[in-house]
Amino acid sequence: MCPEPMSVTIEIDAPQLLPHLLTRLEDGGCSVEPIGSRACRVVHEQAANAKIGLCELTFFVRAWAGCHGGVAVSLTLDG
């Protein structure tokens, strides 16, 4: 586990899908916090380090977006 959990901001262009994304991230063991109608802050506490955590979240969110019609997503490492 990462000594200091990293935080990532995820933005999507389909606000109606944000609750579903939050649920899926929580199901995967992440802590999530909505920060707007199109964005959330995610903490991936199980990641070995920040680089791996960002890679895992990027892979997951892009796969999720592809399953939902190619929803546009962006991830930004906080801090």
SSE layout and pairing:
Blueprint: E1 7-12, H1 18-27, E2 31-34, E3 39-43, H2 50-66, E4 73-77
Antiparallel strand pairs: 1-3, 1-4, 2-3
Descriptive overview:
The protein is globular. With 79 residues, the protein is α+β, with helices and mostly antiparallel strands. The chain is 34% helix and 25% strand. It has one domain (7-77): 2-Layer Sandwich (Alpha-Beta Plaits). It has 2 helices and 4 strands, in the order βαββαβ. A 4-stranded antiparallel beta sheet has the order 2-3-1-4, covered by helices on one side. The longest helix is centred in the last third of the chain and has 17 residues, at 50-66.
CATH topology: Alpha-Beta Plaits
Mean pLDDT, all residues? 91
Give a count of the beta strands, DSSP E runs of length 2 or more. Answer: 4
Number of domains: 1
- Uncertain stretches of 5 or more adjacent residues: none
Order of helices and strands: EHEEHE
Radius of gyration: 12 Å
Strand content: 25-35%
Strand order of the largest sheet: 2-3-1-4
Give the CATH architecture.
Answer: 2-Layer Sandwich
Tell me the major beta sheet: 4 strands, antiparallel
What gap, in angstroms, lies between the N and C termini?
19 Å
